[in-house]
Amino acid sequence: MVDIAKIFRGMQNGAETIQANFNLLNDGMFKTSTVTITGIYNITLTLRRTGNDVELVTIRQIISSAEGHEQVDAEITIPSGYRPISRALAKFELNNGSTLYNPMILRLDNDGKTYLTNEAFTNNRYIQSYATWKTNDPWPTSN
User: What whole-number distance in Å separates Cα of residue 98 and Cα of residue 43?
Assistant: First the structure.
């Protein structure tokens, strides 16, 4: 949240205060930070924060999963600055180039922990994902 100055009639330096408020709003709304993390199946996730919006994007890559999972630790920790306000879900589309399969679901909790649900499959599949959520975390310190 941006802490802006109150404007009132007859205030000294009113125009400068208004401009300073606009600058604060612009910095808060358009400031961007990005981090890349890797987790289960060596899936690479890019998290990009703009204002209070977070995007999760994966590159299209090939995975294999001989075992199914039901809400298991995904070995991915969402860093502070990118965590959802409340639980969020990211759906990973799975296909083999000609068939679309049941998705893999990544649950993201507001403490940064993640959990994976997917079915077992024996052949390689392409995976990709895009998800968004809101955060009220303090701004990331690393970027």
Answer: 22
Considering the domain architecture, whether residues 64 and 4 belong to the same structural domain is answered as: no
Q: Are residues 26 and 49 in the same domain?
A: no
Range of the structural domain that residue 90 is part of: 32-134
Residues sharing a CB contact under 8 Å with residue 116, sequence separation 6 or more, in sequence order:
40, 69, 71, 72, 73, 74, 104, 105, 106, 107
Query: Domain check: are 38 and 8 in the same one?
Result: no
DSSP string over 2-17: --PPP--TT-TTHHHH
**Per-residue pLDDT reduced to its tens digit, 47-80:** 999 989 999 999 888 777 777 778 888 888 999 9
Q: What is the pLDDT of residue 132?
A: 96
Question: 0.85 cut: is pTM over it?
Answer: no
